[in-house]
Amino acid sequence: PVVVEVAPPPPESDFGTVVIKDANGYNADVYLRGKRIGQTHSDLILQVGDHELQLRSRLLFDETLRVTVSPGEKQVVNVLLKVRPTRVVFPGGWDGDCRVIATDATHHSEDVGSLSQLGWSWQIDHPDKRVELQLSCNGKPVASKIWRVMSSPEVRFPDVPGRP
Which pLDDT does position 83 carry in this prediction? Predict the structure, then answer.
């Protein structure tokens, strides 16, 4: 007689995989109960069950999402993260009549107003995109600054040359 042994079925996994994808390709750190567990666009191995995940980045608004992880499953969660605006602050040494000229990544330039009209600051709605700000005083360019990315809520335009 031939004896055939049948192996028991493998135990069901206690884990599943979650991939969080942002439609614009932004990256954010992913936190679970206050601990960083990875980044968006990468495989996150989580225990089976319900989880609340926080997405954080200096460039983006924080986002919280809930996921339910099933055994052995790979789940893709699509999100649309929002960019946090940045404020450019101009030092008080500049003449209030100086004009601020903004040039975006497509080389489109716009006169956004005088320093005094702007209240000595200007909000950049897309700090993830290249921007050049130029100050023009008495019709002449006097200073400029290019930012490729602004990753803090406030940045400072350079001081007047020769002033501390």
Answer: 93
Percent of the chain with pLDDT over 70: 91
Q: Which helix (H) or strand (E) holds 115?
A: helix 115-118
Residue with token string 């993260």: 81
Q: From start to end of the chain, where are the E strands?
A: 15-22, 29-32, 35-39, 43-47, 49-57, 60-69, 74-79, 86-89, 99-104, 109-114, 121-124, 131-137, 140-147, 154-156
Confidence of residue 7 (pLDDT cuts 50, 70, 90): low
